[in-house]
Amino acid sequence: MRSRAVCVLGEYEVIISDSLAEELGIELFKPKKGLWRLHGEKTLRESVESQYWVD
Hints:
By secondary structure, the protein is of the alpha+beta class. Helix content is 13%, strand content 20%. The protein has a domain at 25-50. The longest helix has 7 residues, at 18-24.
């Protein structure tokens, strides 16, 4: 699968579609708490704190 990154003026976070998340094997367990895993894994991962690169 191919994807394209798009920068939106005024936005500072990355957003991916549900389709891309599925293709990457990302499974959301508790989105509000930032818990997720890759398909086939048992270990839950924690989201990292946001990083912003603003000029």
